[in-house]
Amino acid sequence: MFDLTGKVVMATGANSGIGLGFLLGCARQGADVVVWARREEQNLAALDQLKAEGAGRIHHEVVDVSDEAEVIRAFASTVTAMGRVDCVFANAGFSERTPSFPDMSSETYHKLLAVNQHGAFYTLREASRHMRDRAQAADAGGSIVVCGSLSIFHGMQGMEHYAAAKGALAAMVKGMAVELGQYKVRVNMLAPGFIMTGMTGDPQVREQVIARFSSITPLARVGELDDIAGPAAYLASDASQFHTGDILIVDGGRSVKSL
Question: b/e string for 37-52 if b means 16 or more Cβ within 10 A?
Answer without folding.
Answer: bbeeebbeebbebbee
